[in-house]
Amino acid sequence: MTRRNLVKYLFGSTGLVYLLSRCAPPKKEYNLEGITDCADLTGLSEEELEKRKSLGYEANTPVPENRCDNCQLYLPPTAERKCGGCQLFKGPVQADAYCTYWAPRIEKV
């Protein structure tokens, strides 16, 4: 195989892989809006449930002063969604929950 053919092959196959990846259906995003039970994880994929587990997420904190609602990564509930969320994983997060990546909230002055 000549160098020119090798370059054509590599760029051609890479281009084909790129085009095929663009044709794949988009991943379904998990939406917190409309959820009324913040402990309900039925809409999460096995991958997301495993991610929560690997981050040490617990619905009730074992460390009273380290709660999700005073963590820098916590996404508090809004008018559109009843449950909080987290920047590290998908799904509802209870305010009194905890994970091993807890970081103190930095209050802006």
Give an overview in words:
With 109 residues, this protein is mainly alpha-helical. It has a domain at 28-86. Helices cover 28% and strands 4% of the residues. It contains 2 helices and 2 strands, in the order ααββ. The protein has a two-stranded antiparallel ribbon. The longest helix has 21 residues, at 3-23. It comes from Cyclobacterium jeungdonense. Specific class of high-redox-potential 4Fe-4S ferredoxins. Functions in anaerobic electron transport in most purple and in some other photosynthetic bacteria and in at least one genus (Paracoccus) of halophilic, denitrifying bacteria. Belongs to the high-potential iron-sulfur protein (HiPIP) family.
Give the N-terminus to C-terminus distance in angstroms: 65 Å
Stretches where pLDDT falls below 50 for ≥5 residues? 24-28
Order of helices and strands: HHEE
- Helix-strand category: mainly alpha
The major pleated sheet works out as: 2 strands, antiparallel
- The general outline is elongated
Report the radius of gyration as a whole number of Å: 21 Å
| Proportion of strand residues | under 5%
Number of helical segments? 2
